[in-house]
Amino acid sequence: MLKAATQASATRASPNRSARGVPDTHGTYALLLQCVRSGRVAVGSLGVMDVEPGVYIYLGSAFGPGGLRARLSRHAARRKVKRWHVDYLRPRMSLGGAWFSTSSHHQEHDWAASVLALENGTVPLPRFGASDCSCSSHLVYFPDRAAGSRSIADALGACAADSLVRVDAGLLRQLARGRR
């Protein structure tokens, strides 16, 4: 269940192994977003998106300055200049956690396909986060808020090029506070 998203630290997908936070190295990440109210969101040039209660998984990469730490802290922050599609969606959603891999290989395309293949996973808005690639979307929606984060982690881990690390929402909020 999504309650696993409230763990107190970053943890590896395998049990009893922990990481010391989020590194500033390059890598790929998956954000776990939760929506509790229906609504509409204008998403830049993609148009208007209907959001429904449920779970959204956004897949991205952090190969710029500051790496994963900078990108995840930016996504955790509520106030920011809208630069990426997820920036338009983020104010409507609570952040339930994230997963990341520090592989130098861009994995977001494989991860998007893997998560979309899970039962009940759908594309809520075509091309979301995928305007620079051939993926249908880098955002996957699950209508059931009780969708298992374990199955999402399994899907990501099955195609991860190296260890998959889980980060809880509390650590992401700490990163965002450190950004101010």
Keywords:
180 residues, alpha+beta, six-stranded antiparallel β-sheet, two-stranded antiparallel sheet, 5 helices, 8 strands, 26% helix, 26% strand, disordered N terminus
Would you identify the regions where 5 or more consecutive residues have pLDDT less than 50?
Answer: 1-19
Radius of gyration: 15 Å
**Helix content range of the residues, please?**
25-40%
Strand content: 25-35%
Following the backbone from N to C, one meets helices and strands in this order, namely EEEEEHHEHEHEH
Count of individual beta strands: 8
Mean pLDDT: 85
Q: How many helices in DSSP terms? A: 5
Head-to-tail CA distance between termini: 32 Å
The main sheet orders its strands as 1-8-6-2-5-7
| Overall form | globular
| Derived structural class | alpha+beta
Largest sheet: 6 strands, antiparallel
Can you give a write-up of this model?
The chain is α+β, with helices and mostly antiparallel strands and about 180 residues long. About 25% of the residues lie in helices and about 25% in strands. It is built from five helices and eight strands; from the N terminus they run βββββααβαβαβα. The strands form two sheets. It has a six-stranded antiparallel beta sheet with strand order 1-8-6-2-5-7. The chain has a two-stranded antiparallel sheet with strand order 3-4. Helix 1 packs across helix 5 (about 170-180) and helix 3 crosses helix 4 (about 150-160). The model is unreliable at about 1-20 (pLDDT under 50).
